[in-house]
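User: Hey, my collaborator sent me this sequence without any context and asked if I could get a structure. I don't really work with proteins. Can you help?
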Amino acid sequence: MKDKARLLIVDDSVESLELIDTQLDNKYHTSLVTSLSEARKKLLNNRYHIAIVDLVLPGENGLDLIRELTTDHPYTAVIAISGQASIEAAVMAMKLGAAEFLVKPLSNPDLINIMVEKTLQAQWLLEENRRLSAMLRKELDTDLIIGNSVPIQSIIQKLKKIAGLDTLALITGETGVGKSVFAELIHRNSPRRGEKFVSVNCGSLTETLLESLLFGHKRGAFTDANRDKIGYFQEANGGTLFLDEITETSLAFQVKLLKVLETGVYRAVGSDED
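Assistant: No problem. I've predicted the 3D structure and written it out in structure-token form, which is a compact way to encode the shape of the chain:
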């Protein structure tokens, strides 16, 4: 079954948030927040398909968040909403990258559902275009691999297929066979190649430290944690995270990690929010 899309909805009115959430009829995973600071916290640890952003918030400007989303979260589409904003603000929202603009109150449930479906479809087509573009490249960048044997050529063909997909990949093999090399090749030949490739040797770290490095931590979570710090999952957002020697961690940690990989949801150490 296809996973539900994840939506972030930002509006200072709780009543408006609940109305939109009700109209969406539980078809999506929704996160409801009433301020830009709350939205930024959610974006720190989660990836959303769509952000529905009210342009007019008490003491805040929704355009600021749209600008940040366009720059830092290019895979999140934006639907701007407002009951007070001027035409100029609506035009600015679209120029900053908003896919749609809706006027509040959103009393027609069909309208918001149509806009969300339309935006998701556009996102899917964009992702598909990236995937196909990667697959259509004639040559795989394989300068890290030396060899023309049948097994090596077979691996290269598999790399071509995997590189074009937005999916998880499990690379197995004995120590020293070059698993990290193949992981980097997948990244370098994928639509994500312009983003970060982050490699973590899970076998060389304590699980407490590993959890902090992967998921980030909040100030005061432990001794010397004097500031908030994002984890490798957030750092590699939009790119590739390579977890080396994952089998060296405990079964309990692997179960926790599997849940994160399946749901895309995690919690920074010391935080009470996902």
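In plain terms: The longest helix spans residues 109-136. You can pass these tokens on to your collaborator as they are.
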